[in-house]
Specification:
The protein is mainly alpha-helical and 135 residues long. The chain has a domain of 60 residues: Methane Monooxygenase Hydroxylase, Chain G, domain 1 (Up-down Bundle). It is built from four helices and no strands. Helix 2 runs antiparallel to helix 3. The radius of gyration is 26 Å and the shape is flat. The protein starts with a helix and ends in a 5-residue tail after the last helix. The relative contact order is 0.05.
Length: 135
């Protein structure tokens, strides 16, 4: 029990020491813009209420889901020898389910970023490049 208590005391002293050194050696800024929330000394321009396309958030959620797939497969790769063939087949089924989900998302157009955005032609980004004059 006493090693845990000693650990907490040392961590507390380390945190207090770091805060004290930061206070003593840190710079003091008195500019008006520095005290503004979420700003780093730059006067803000415009509104913070910028409308984002819903596809931006959809792609972000896809990234999180498939990034978690990579985390699970990495942990499987670390323990592959202990898991044996049972673990291999489980990882293969897991990957197949996620690939089926990716194929479904591609088929329904959820991964198609350019179509449907105002300001872009129906052909997507390549259509914009194709209409540029050649020199």
């Amino acid at each position: 029990m006493w090693p845990l208590l000693l650990y907490f005391v040392l961590v507390f002293l380390l945190v207090v020491g770091m805060l004290a050194v930061s206070y003593v050696l840190g710079q003091r800024h008195r500019d008006r813009a520095t005290g503004a929330p979420y700003e780093g000394g730059i006067v803000s321009e415009g509104s913070a209420r910028v409308r984002q396309c819903a596809k931006f958030y959809l792609i972000a959620m896809f990234f999180v889901v498939f990034d978690l797939e990579a985390v699970f497969l990495f942990s499987w790769a670390v323990a592959a020898r202990e898991l044996g063939w049972t673990g291999f087949w489980e990882a293969l089924i897991f990957t197949a389910i996620l690939l089926a989900a990716l194929a479904y998302l591609g088929r329904v157009g959820a991964l198609n970023w350019w179509n449907g955005n105002p300001g872009f032609p129906a052909g997507g980004r390549n259509a914009v490049v194709a209409k540029q004059p050649t020199r």
